[in-house]
UniProtKB/TrEMBL annotation:
One of its GO terms (molecular function) is aspartic-type endopeptidase activity. Gene3D superfamilies: Acid Proteases, SGNH hydrolase. InterPro entries: Aspartic_peptidase_A1, Aspartic_peptidase_AS, PEPTIDASE_A1, Peptidase_aspartic_dom_sf, SGNH_hydro, SGNH_hydro_sf. PANTHER family: BETA-SITE APP-CLEAVING ENZYME, ISOFORM A-RELATED. Residues 74-466 form the Peptidase A1 domain. It comes from the Eukaryota. It comes from Effrenium voratum. Belongs to the peptidase A1 family. Pfam families: Asp, Lipase_GDSL_2. This is Peptidase A1 domain-containing protein. Keywords: Aspartyl protease, Hydrolase, Membrane, Protease, Transmembrane, Transmembrane helix.
Amino acid sequence: MSHGVAVSTEVVQISLQRHRRPTERRWPAKTWLLPGFSWGPPWQWQPKIWQPQARRPTSSLRRVHLQDLGDLQYIAEVSIGSSSSTFRLILDTGSSDLWVSGEQFIPSLSDTWTPLPQAGLVKLDYGQGEVEGIVGVDKACLLAKPVPLCVEQEFLVAKQVSDLSLNTFDGILGLGLPGLSHANQDFVQSLARSYREVQCFSFSLNREDSKSFALFGPCAKLLRKAAKETHLPEEQAALLSVQRLFGFARGWWLVSLAISCDGTRIWQGPDMYSICGLEVAALLLLSLYPGRRSSRGQSSDCRKRVCNACFALCSFFQALVLMLLLIALLVLLAPMVVNAFQSKVLVALDTGTSLIVIPTENFQQVADAMFGLRLRDSCVLSNSELLCACEVAAEAKALDFHLGDVRLSLHPLQMFANVNAEILGDQPACRSGLATQDLRFWILGDVFLSRSAPRGVRSMRVLRSEPKEKRCAVRRWPSATGRGLRILIYGDSLTAGAPSMVPFAQELHRALEGGAGAESCEVETTACGLCASTALQMLAVLEEPYVVDALGGSWGSGLVHLAKEASLAIIMAGTNDLASPAPAGDVSKAIQGMHVACHRVGVPTVALGVPDAGGRFIRRLGQALPTKRRAVNAALAVWAREGFEDGTRPELFINTSALLPHGPRSRRAGHWERDGVHFTAQGAEALGARLARILRPLVQRRDAEALGRFQGTRG
């Protein structure tokens, strides 16, 4: 039995079957028509994601029955829309989107369906297949006991499904973190903000002869239930911290643990018989060798004559000494192993994967440690999956997973599954449960989650339903005099200062206040960086008092919510949009929309261009990204110069790519992280200091204007 913990307010048991399905979201009636937006209907805002705690309901434990299909897929029933039609969806912790087949869900039959035409056609890539369709919002309910678990959810209605068979499921319900989501809203976040208590979810994945289920509800209740189901005290459970990583790994349920395999011994099984045979042959040769020597040298000396007289006794003692030496050598070498594996690695817990997927750099060493010489003569790689002769399982070594003080062993006898095929002649073939891909972390799928420890508990803590101060993405630097211009700096992880968490706003504030004489400015600075969030996502949550970033690790606030208390807003967004399918025109319009929203609450703005990037980021995603970045920055520069018809435009446009380029000089100065996207602490300080020189005249002018208005009011 395995348990993985995620979000919900009540402990609910839901039957699961392995299948994939979409999610939908409904937008409120309130819209803002933004000038210059010629695409689609007026931009509609995301529903409120925060309610005062007193108004949110409490939750209970809910149980969802899961249908187990061959220990490979676990499927739950979900109802979507006003018609209450039910669909079979795979619960997948390795993705964050909800989608359902367009052949099963017909939007026009649901009175509560709200389309999102501005999203256009959205494509989801699952590695082994693709899904493409339209996006909308509707009510989605996991059929749980004692009551269904319902949320208003954005999801995709699949019009085209490639390389995925829909014979056994209708779609996928993703339970991953927001970083994997292609939408502005995912199921985990929806649950997190729907209830008062901190929410978790858990899986109990069993073999087909026993029932599998999922639990959703308050963490405290869920952990007590898990302890009861597994007969394992809570204090003996393995508690692992979820790693909040940027770039390639964002959005996965990633934990750090040690994995080891004892490896195969140098001499074991048939090898020992061969060695014993060699010993017997050596003894026979030695028994004959002294006899031939003695026949040629009988009169050489007295010692040889004695040996000649006692030939049998001398041969026996010589053979005995050699045999003792060989036995001593065997005793020393027999315990020795080869190809042992031990390493501390990042692993993703993924109910949507049936195998243990090992990075290419580790796969050969792990396979050698588990299977030894049998790997060469009895195993083959087929489509990146390791197939072996079924008889190999009994001889192979177990993989050990060290989760803190808890050790879980997974033996190949638990992993092998017959595939009704033959390899390497007439040997029956089995799936080994292992596969390899060019990844930077391991993926532990159902072969681990359902078999590694029948009575073990593996849990994942998920998003809290309310923010905590230590996870707040909003940072403030007060004025030395307690008064002055209030500046808001808003953006993504580059504004947050990730990964060093030294934001450029800190140096900007210090440089503005630390000027000499007339150069000094009195400012109060606030910075909010929503890591991994796109400009389109920020635009969708403008007025929200609490917003979770796309990594699910920090809470910030919507731009307008913070701007209402500011005198000047500085906005830097768009880096995460470069890797999205959104065209440059949509990205620039989304950034313009953020500025327009600030102007409508009376706050002037400064537009910072999309920063430069390079290194691995460009090599991995292609040269189209610099072109897209330049197009976005060019559109912002033209808008800052010409403005909209109503005169709305930023006070300044600053090209940050020119201010801090990703060039040889900046790299030698240590301004860029190795990923080529994020600033180092030194880079953030350099950018802040350079921005201060450009912004100082504007800040002084705005401060003087504010002071003049204040004095005029008093007079």
